[in-house]
Amino acid sequence: MLIILVGVLCIFVLVMILSTLIFDEKRRHGREMNFVQLKGFWSGDDRRSTDRLHISFEVKYIADGKVRISKGMDISTKGIRLLLDERFEKGTPLVLSIRLPDRKKVIRASGMVVWTSESLEDKKKSPKRLFNTGIKFFRFQDSGEKELFDFMHSLECKSA
Fold first, then answer.
1. Which of 102, 103, 135, 154 can pair with 111 through a Cys bridge, CB separation 3.0 to 4.6 Å?
2. How far apart are CA 59 and CA 111, in angstroms?
């Protein structure tokens, strides 16, 4: 009976030692894991589903019944980033008239403010506070979306 008890006790001690070693190895391995970010993978605030052109162009917009002119900083078929001298709340609707470079036709669209942040890099160039404002398109007039797509495609073909 004593031999069986000693055998069980030895097995118990070995199981405890092995489980401790396994636990420590898993914990050590977890600390040493290096995480990498794949280039082009959606991350942070930049989770766009379409390509975005970084070009400068003129945009007229209507907010609160007033027409104003601003500078477009980049554009895609899903949205646009404007540099504005006023801050809009998220959800503010805007009506846009976009004049793309080297195009006669003006693209008209309705959109909504989805984000805004103060533009620190343009702060030095202007006495006013400037805001980068992201606007998501939700409706185009006439063939505006096709015009925008064709314009973006023509620039991609030139750069290829």
1. 135
2. 13
